[in-house]
Amino acid sequence: MDRRHTTRVVLISIGAAVGGFIFGFDSSVINGAINAVTDQFALSAAVTGFVVAISLLGAAVGAWFGGPVANKWGRTRVMLLVGILFLAGSVGSAFAFSAWDLAAWRVIGGLSIGAASAIVPSYISEISPAKLRGRLTSLQQMAIVLGIFVALLMDDVLTGASGGAGAEFWWGLETWRWMFLAGVVPAVVYGALALRLPESPRMLVSNGDSDKAIEVLKHVHGRSESETKTLVDSIRKSIRSDSKPSFKDLRGGTLGLVPIVWVGVIIAAFQQLVGINVIFYYSNSLWRSVGFSADFASNASVITAITNVVITVVAIFLIDKLGRRPLLLIGSSGMTISLVLMAISFTQASIVNGQPELPEPWGPVALVAANAFVVSFAVSWGPVMWTLLGEMFPNQIRGLAVGIATAVNWLANFAVTVTFPALSQMSLPFTYSMYAFFALASLVFVFFKVPETKNIPLEKMSDRYKRERRKAGKSTSGSSDGSSGSSGKAEARG
Ligand code: BGC
């Protein structure tokens, strides 16, 4: 691909990835607001926890339905819907008058970020040439971590400027309301971008519009007419000609599903079960237990968010060079070691005023281990899981399979987030050991089950799927294998 077209596909991917920014922004903006909300509405701890976590359930629902709706409407229309829902969720949360309507608006925001998380990886991988696909799909994670960083920073700046999240700020509105209202900006930007982004060529072919798909591919990749036609032909062959994608296509011999769908579901669950969001959602209490003051603990969280951004850049450089599997294996090893160190450190904690405190040298050990954990995640499971989900499934089932796997990711996130407070009160060494166990299990799972997808054209992904379906006695695409060598080369050349 020449420079002009490379720039074009990068810009399109960045535009789509703004959905990831909304995802990261929404999951973190609540951090700065929640204490003031709790005071203003006089909430119990349980109701506060509910208001925080309910958006994760909304996200699971949004992810589940995002795929099927995009199959019908196209991916870019769902992006527009994401923008509209997020706009409604942000304005509604900002003007909430009780915990209950705030929870309802958070569900609406959750629906939108869930749908975005299921659509963006598929869209980017469907619009990218195979050689750049890892880097471009990793932009989703880049956008997520930037969203987390901007939300935390903005919470910090607004709190500093007004004197507290509960203090009145512009137009007599409390500061926490402005935090939510800030979500209007990315929502409007995303809606406007969605109107300009080209539809995914794979989606167009699957909806019978091959001419438009040829047009999009020529515009985005700048390939010759004949190369583009060969590629569109191979996409068409890889999609069942006789039916629209449906849940029936996911059926197979392993507990009712084709094994490749299980692989997606399990990696999506592992990404959360290693406990990454315990750091992002509850880090303030972690930093205090290693000896930081309350003020510095909040700065430490911003520093962690910056580390996350920087290491994601490293991952983007590595993903198409080293491949997906090596990164995941390195990440799982690093996470296992650092989580074991955290578990050991917390066996030495004493409880002072209800908070754990670590004596020397265990405070610094836990601090280094927690950061090593974030680095190990950010270079591997953070971006690579989204990349893999976007590219590991064949065209026929991608929308549905990514939706299911992503919904499982959100449910696992919910499970970890709501259980952490109780588990940590019971035993922090046990809690971190449990996350370490999942990190080790993820290592073994990747080693034995996760395929390498680096440089492989999307149309080739149907080979394994077809074998698995045949083994389970289910029918596969009526037409011949869509992954012909020539079409494969056409895409890989990208
Ligand atoms: C995960 C999020 C997490 C973020 C942290 C994402 O890949 O899905 O749950 O908060 O990474 O960087």
Automatic annotation (TrEMBL):
- Output the CDD domains linked to this UniProt entry: MFS_XylE_like
Task: Kindly list the GO molecular function terms attached to this UniProt entry.
Answer: transmembrane transporter activity
Question: What SUPFAM superfamilies is this protein classified in?
Answer: MFS general substrate transporter
Domain Major facilitator superfamily (MFS) profile: where?
A: 12-454
Which Pfam families is this protein grouped with? Sugar_tr
Matching entries from NCBIfam families are given as: SP
Task: State what protein this is by name.
Answer: Sugar porter family MFS transporter
Source organism of the structure: Arthrobacter terrae
